[in-house]
């Protein structure tokens, strides 16, 4: 009986009572607010960040090398000074580690053009420079590839029309973007296993580099690309990046 | 949830019986006009410090300490404010490389973020790296289309959350981008990506019909729009394929919208889609004004952007 009364009231409330009291979305206003230097910093937040910032700055800003010019990844069609420098640095720093662990040598290096994340400015080079060039945590891996995979890698490079950084590989295209010459360490490519150094992002198919996935074996060096750059900067008082003939097109 | 509604109605009825002759008029004062403010960021990418005056593109812009001041001021202006982030909190400055996201989460907690969804770069130290930083985050992680069941962060991410501000129920659900091809599989491990449109349809049904939300917000890391890949799901496609979403707060594509886009949903109703670029250069602000029946505007909801 009591429940019946409640249900009647409930019915009454939901169909008449509440209807008069509904809130309606009447108006929406949207805008964006620029965060700029007209806004005072919150002092408490600023004080909280400060010790973190100082620790990083002290570590990052010590000068470790010198760049005689400014280099960018758009300074060349198929190879750039900055890309050549990075790929060569990976080869120079990673090969001794790989050789010590496996007894083999790295045959060539392939990175990706998009992986050059900033310009390299003329002047002093610090650890910060390496962080700007390579902000990501990607590490060097060495992949053992058969000739068939090397061929599909070369085909990828010939079609990509980008200056993907390479080292120890020489690739020449004709005007139709067909391969007319390809050499690894100055030798014709034969039917053997090649040890190709790259980073874990590309190994996992980043930038559609699918040829790495059919491989004989994978060697994880636990060595970040950025740390290889830092180690290379530390060995060079003045770096000498240069564009050369490692990847060209005959027009 | 139906049961809870019944109990609430029952309680109200009992009161009415007690009040006798006062009748239904006493009920009218329960809801009053109010304003809900949604503040939002996306793709901050570890940009804790402001850009310096020498920066070529973003000179003197951004900075968490300035954002904190802005947010404080807006909260003073309207305490009924939600602060949301659409993902890619991590990666982009040495703060992330040195501290793994700890400072980003600690600062967002200090700024009293209410919720964030998860972007692809939030997996950059692996799902284990994200899990390790969760204790520093005093806000909710919301994502409905990643199935984390077989991962360490299972139970730490909710599909949706309902916030109540001044009696207004605001349902927020999250959507993440497909990780395959974007994040290395050894990083996201057994995280399963589920279809965003299907999940959004489920979520809006839950939030409207079960939770009776007054506002439904989608925190998306799908990306605003892909003009070279028309089949790829994006915020604009999501808006058109769903209903009952009031606002999609987007990320991923670093799209600097000067003002929110007014899109049409599957029922022909308006959906706001907004995204404020990246690096904390801008803060998005959307105000929702609720009014009683009496003051209801003749044309439904007016949108001023």
Secondary-structure-derived class of chain A: alpha+beta
Mean of all residue-level pLDDT scores of chain A: 92
CATH class of chain A, named Alpha Beta
CATH topology of chain B: Purple Acid Phosphatase, chain A, domain 2
Biggest sheet of chain A, strands in spatial order? 6-3-10-5-11
Q: How many distinct domains of chain B?
A: 1
N-to-C SSE series of chain A? HEHEHEEHEHEEEEEHEHE
Tell me the total number of β-strands of chain B.
Answer: 14
Shape of chain B: globular
- The overall pLDDT average of chain B reads 90
Order of helices and strands of chain B: HEHEHHEHEEEEHEHEHEEEEE
Q: Number of domains in the coordinates of chain A?
A: 1
In CATH terms, what is the architecture of chain A? Alpha-Beta Complex
Q: Can you describe this structure?
A:
The complex is a heterodimer of chains A (251) and B (305). By secondary structure, chain A is an alpha+beta fold. Chain A has one domain (72-249): Alpha-Beta Complex (5'-nucleotidase,  domain 2), CATH 3.90.780. Chain A contains seven helices and twelve strands. In chain A, the strands form three sheets. Chain A has a five-stranded mixed β-sheet with strand order 6-3-10-5-11. In chain A, a hairpin with a 5-residue loop joins β7 and β8 (179-184). In chain A, α3 crosses α7. The longest helix of chain A is centred in the middle third of the chain and has 22 residues, at 81-102. Residues 8-20 of chain A have low confidence and may be disordered. Chain B has 305 residues and is an alpha/beta fold. Chain B has one domain (36-304): Purple Acid Phosphatase, chain A, domain 2 (4-Layer Sandwich). Chain B is built from eight helices and 14 strands. In chain B, the strands form three sheets. In chain B, strands 6-7-9-10-12-11 form a six-stranded mixed β-sheet, with helices on one face. Chain B has a five-stranded mixed β-sheet with strand order 4-3-2-1-13, with helices on one face. In chain B, β11 (261-264) and β12 (270-274) form a beta hairpin. Classes of the chains: A alpha+beta (251), B alpha/beta (305). The interface between A and B is large, with 54 and 83 residues. β1 of chain A pairs parallel with β14 of chain B, so a sheet runs across the interface. Chain A: InterPro entries: 5'-Nucleotdase_C, 5'-Nucleotdase_C_sf, 5_nucleotidase/apyrase. Chain A: This is 5'-nucleotidase. Chain A: Residues 79-213 form the 5'-Nucleotidase C-terminal domain. Chain A: GO terms for molecular function: hydrolase activity. Chain B: Belongs to the 5'-nucleotidase family. Chain B: InterPro entries: 5'-Nucleotdase_CS, 5_nucleotidase/apyrase, Calcineurin-like_PHP, Metallo-depent_PP-like.
